C-alpha cells in the first residue's frame, strides 16, 4: 500500500466512527495489505484523533490468548492506542449510540509511574516502572465490517489492527494493587444483566500479564516509541468478548482484586 492509501483507509475508519456506519474490509479492498500497512493506517487513525483535540493516555494489547492467535492464524499479539475520549470509570453509563457494536473484555490494567522502553526491556523493568495495577474492562468496537456481505469472508488481523486493534474504551476499577503479586492467579467472573457469561484467569494472557507489557515495550522500541509515565496499559483479555447491546449491564467481579461495573444506555 502507498502512503496515500494508508491515509484514505484511515479517513474511512474515522468517518465510520463519526457516522456509526461501518466501512468495508480493508483486506478485500487491499488484498496485498501487510502488518506494516495495518499499523501505518492505525497511526493515521490516531493522528486524526489527536487533530481533533484528543491526547494519548495509554495502550492496549490484544490477541494475547493462544486461542485467539490460533483463530486468526498469527503467533504474536497486536496493540492499539488509548486516547482521552475512551476513558470511563466504574459505574459509568455509556451513552446510547456511542458505539456501533460494543463488546467488553476483562483485563488487568497497568498504570505507569515512569517511562518504559527499549528492545531489551525485562520483567523487572516493567515492575519497577509500574505505579499500580487495577481491575479493568476494555470496550471493543468495530468501525469495520466483521464479514464481507458479498463473499462472507471474515475480517482478518490486518483489518483489526488498522481499526486501532478494535479499541474503543477503557474502564478502570477504583482498587489499586502492587504489580509484583502473582497476576497469573487474578481472575474475574463477568456477568451481563446478572447472568454469568465468562470467567478467566490472568494466566490466559501470555501466561503472565507482566510479559504482555514486556512484549509491548519491545515492539514499540522497533518504531522509536516508549511507554510514558502516567499511561494506562491494558495487558490483554483473559475472557472472550461479550456482546453489549443497548441496556446491557456488565459486572466484573475480580474477588479481592476489586470489581468493575458498566451500564450501556
UniProtKB/TrEMBL annotation:
GO CC aspect terms: cytoplasm
NCBIfam families found in the cross-reference section: HpaH
Record-linked InterPro entries: Fumarylacetoacetase_C_sf, HpcG, Hydratase-Decarb/MhpD_sf
Organism: Pseudosulfitobacter pseudonitzschiae
Classification via PANTHER family: 2-KETO-4-PENTENOATE HYDRATASE, ACID HYDRATASE
GO terms of molecular function: 2-oxo-hept-3-ene-1,7-dioate hydratase activity; 2-oxopent-4-enoate hydratase activity
The name this protein goes by in its record: 2-oxo-hepta-3-ene-1,7-dioic acid hydratase
